[in-house]
Amino acid sequence: xxxxxxxxxxxxGPAHVEPEILDRLRAPIAGHRSPGFKALYASLGPRLAQVxxxxxxxxxxxxxxxxxxxxxxxxxxxxxxxxxxNGAFSERWEAxxxxxxxxxxxLAHPWGEPxxxxxxxxxxxxxxxxxxxxxxxxxxxxxxxPLAEIAAAVRAESDAxxxxxxxxxxGGAPVETEAWxxxxxxxxxxxxxxxxxGLTLFSISDRYAERAERLPHRGFYTDLLRYRDKHRAGGTIxxxxxxxxxxxxxxxxxxxxxxxxxxxxxxxxMSEATLAWAVEAGCEPGAAEGSRSWTLTCLRPPRGSEAPxxxxxxxxxxxxxxxxxxQWKPSTFRIGxxxxxxxxxxxxxxxxxxxxxxARSIPETIQGA
Length: 369
Ligand SMILES: Cc1ncc(COP(=O)(O)O)c(C=O)c1O
Known about the structure:
Bound molecules: pyridoxal-5'-phosphate
Order of helices and strands: EHHEHEHEHEEEHEEEHHHHEEHEEHH
Strand content: 5-15%
CATH class of the largest domain: Alpha Beta
Number of domains: 2
């Protein structure tokens, strides 16, 4: 494990990966139908279920998360969908659906604001939907949506499937897949799970599977039931990224050794510390109070500093932080405090950020001149 205070990579995904985990990528290649690999694969599911907090199957896609978002909208009935939007990735759900030739509804919230469960209730009373999509943690704005309340609203008002992008939160903030009745939950390997990019982990509920069974054509690579059926038979739908699965094996050990709840709490404390530093440094959080993400913080720099310049200045100092995303690209920067990042790493980062801000800031008197 890297020494605390030495990690220098603070992107909001892909996130820092520990050297021991990267080493596992060098495991000798074996056939994915070999007994050795099959045993490794079989050991992943039950541990993933603990991380997802579900007794349902947790499946592994050799793909980035967007493919599983698209597959989720193809594999189950989704002619009528309500997309809850408040940032770039929640808007992506809608863009994917439109690319499939559908005309879904959108319950739009301003960027930086959380989705309002009461508005969700109202929308669901007005019209019947096959599915509702939501992004738990909007990586573009640093808003963490009140997922438990949104799920309760969806369950109380409708029989719609609830499709949840937990790409940048799962492993770093509470996601109670079963207790909250989430029908599909997907998470990226490269975020709070602190693995290299390339895998998407996802769970599907029995309700999702039952609805999917009614659809005769679910594609081939996009058919999430095929994942489930092949998984239950002990394998994967196609040749999987076996090196990544070795890395997942080791990282699951790390996560479960720490304990999932302890891991959430560590992330919560890191987000608190980041926010305290940001306020003290004169930065303005992009996310509304009460909705700030535990895994990343999106900030506007103090007056006199520009976000892209700050990101570049930090790179010169040997530190990687994230720039803004989408419509917030020019005005914000993002600090990922996810996965294996520790408070001691953040303390070093804050010192460097402070120095970079001091070095670059233009005195107010000159700005006004
Ligand atoms: C919340 C969220 N959803 C979806 C995606 C898309 O993931 P991918 O690039 O792995 O397809 C990202 C990527 O950053 C994300 O942060």
